[in-house]
């Protein structure tokens, strides 16, 4: 039997962190002397920090370098995460355990910086569960390009067409499909108005994922 894998986006999927990201990014833009709201940030959900700040820097004419802006943002973001009291999304721990019990390889492919990914997974005791962790900042192009998902499949030793991806953003779903993978679009209201229409399945919660249809040897509970 072909080895199969399940790949997780992180923000809005493993942790309901998009409100934290929106709040910190709005604060960071304000600290740089401009104003933006959540609606203005929603198109960047799923993108890497460098790509997002490259576009915002051009839009607003910020003087600090992209690296300086990201340092400011990440310091605030890690502080906010530590103080947030956020917990993992309902059903994530159970899904991870079911996949591992079925012999499915699992990985994280997120646009967040590695330091933030590891902080989140460590906070929830999930860091050692995954066979690979890939940040979009570690590949040539971030989502919606397929690079991060192709690299995750490579690290797990699994063919892209044997991978299922769980995503909450348009950019993420497009990245998964461009990588030749099947995609589950998770509707998370806190991730904004995301067009998930290119996904193979669209669900409203982790519990709604049609496990028996994924071809991973899983059955509905």
Structure description:
The chain has helices at 18-31, 38-41, 49-60, 66-84, 92-101, 114-123, 147-156, 170-178; strands spanning 5-8, 105-110, 132-135, 163-167, 182-186, 201-203. The chain is an alpha/beta fold and 221 residues long. It folds into two domains: 5-16 and 87-213, Rossmann fold; 18-83, DNA polymerase, domain 1 (Orthogonal Bundle). Helix 1 (18-31) packs across helix 4 (66-84), helix 3 crosses helix 4 (66-84) and helix 4 packs parallel to helix 6 (114-123). Keywords: Carbohydrate metabolism, Hydrolase, Magnesium, Metal-binding. It holds the Pfam family Hydrolase.
Shape: globular
Main sheet: strands, sense, barrel:
6 strands, parallel
Order of helices and strands: EHHHHHEHEHEHEE
Provide the helix percentage: 25-40%
Going by CATH, the homologous superfamily of the largest domain would be HAD superfamily/HAD-like
Q: What's the pLDDT, averaged over the residues?
A: 93
* CATH-defined fold name of the largest domain: Rossmann fold
Number of strands: 6
So, CATH architecture of the largest domain?
A: 3-Layer(aba) Sandwich
What's the CATH class label of the largest domain? Alpha Beta
Descriptive tags:
single chain, 221 residues, alpha/beta, Rossmann fold, DNA polymerase, domain 1, 2 domains, six-stranded parallel sheet, 8 helices, Beta-PGM-like, Hydrolase, haloacid dehalogenase-like family
